[in-house]
């Protein structure tokens, strides 16, 4: 009997398992899919020799998060690779806003749009450097973030702390306007904010844009050499070296509860796997509470709150095998591993408005990747492995420009191919000749993503919306904010828990800490003393 059973071998589940194993616990991870990794997997899905990241694709949070960096995964085969430029945002007129790992280069690019923006970018990074360590600890660590929050307060004093709090709740449009005068630096913040399901005018969107921009400046947007699956393989190898096990093809159907405590799980067919100390679930909150736990064991208030749980918007992702690198009109875009595509800041607002109205966006904001720029092993010499994703409404009621026929009752394939054409047209405008380089293509709609990973429910990639009303103490429902559940010994370890989506491992690490502490407290209550084991 293992000390802990972890449900799901996504990054959070594997991080949780590794942290428990580091404390001497025996751990088994049960994964429904044939391979581990969840949304951190790669494969040749277009043509042989072209390696694509099937879901998540670049990892600034992974190289900054203590939950992952503390595992020292480079000792287990992980190697990070960087493109010459971190991020580019090309404009139709040939200009291009960029983030380079050299701060002076980034500042010079910002100044090319507005002379004062070069020094403003440097000032922004000085502010970030002053508080980034305790700030990331506050954002990614257990809630409430008392220790790290006090460190930030000491460094900034009372007035500075209030200014920071105001800064973090600003909409990204307002933040960009306050900090920069030119379109270049502003659009870098705005595009970064839209990595989550946030509106440029929404409270807190500025925090995402600011944080990802600063992380890109200091850590880059790196990719694992050989594909995203290399990160998963390193996590599995480390766990196995510590004595843990990962068993794939074992779908958990029920958490077994006896005497108000989780004592194990059952998989398809009723096969039991007992757990001596804890069960940690790297599944969405609705899946855990509505599918895996008997409703009669949960408070009525929790079940009522889950009726109001909000998923993030759905996703469409396209992977391309290209015969050569993209012919960008803006040369700097060819050097970036990640490219944002939006005509201007107002395009970001229009895009978010179309999503809110249930319409396929007329000018979708694209997150575009060129992985061969960072990692030549991703494709044959002289070619390119590329991808793009964008968001669509969870329930599609129409097409914003009225060119795609949409029937909410029809399969998504009825609109998906036409929308994929719209995405390619967006790229073609900035890289004329792009479509002539395509030698292979794979289109994944919301249903395809969920079919490959049940946690990507309806194509949602964040485990629930990142909007302010479902963060901190409101995540996944009001009054929670921590991994503990109403069932003793059962912990939520997925991105549905604080701090939410992104490949940083924090929900898994937080759940592991909670399980360790819960066991120590239970042992102390029984025997009058604690034990790390």
The Rg value, from CA coordinates, equals: 23 Å
The general outline is: globular
- The first-level CATH class of the domain at 4-32 and 249-309 and 462-527 is given as Alpha Beta
Average of per-residue pLDDT values? 95
What is the number of helices?
17
Sheet with the most strands: spatial strand order: 7-6-15-17-18-14-20
The largest sheet, given as strand count, sense and whether it forms a barrel, is: 7 strands, mixed
Fold topology:
Blueprint: E1 4-7, H1 11-22, E2 27-31, E3 42-43, E4 52-53, H2 60-64, H3 66-69, E5 80-81, E6 85-90, E7 96-99, H4 103-113, H5 117-140, H6 146-169, H7 172-179, H8 183-193, H9 205-219, E8 223-224, H10 229-241, E9 245-248, E10 252-258, E11 261-267, E12 271-274, E13 278-281, H11 285-292, H12 300-306, E14 314-322, E15 336-341, H13 345-356, E16 359-360, E17 366-370, H14 371-374, E18 384-392, E19 398-399, H15 413-430, E20 438-444, H16 446-452, E21 490-492, H17 506-527
Parallel strand pairs: 1-2, 1-13, 2-9, 6-15, 13-21, 16-19
Antiparallel strand pairs: 3-4, 5-8, 6-7, 10-11, 11-12, 14-18, 14-20, 15-17, 17-18
Helix pairs in contact: 1-10, 1-17, 4-5, 5-6, 7-8, 7-9, 8-9
Structural summary, described in words:
The chain is an alpha/beta fold and 533 residues long. Helix content is 38%, strand content 18%. Among the domains are: 4-32 and 249-309 and 462-527, FAD/NAD(P)-binding domain; 102-219, no CATH class. It contains 17 helices and 21 strands. Helix 4 (103-113) crosses helix 5 (117-140) and helix 7 (172-179) runs antiparallel to helix 8. It starts with a strand and ends in a 6-residue tail after the last helix. The relative contact order is 0.18.
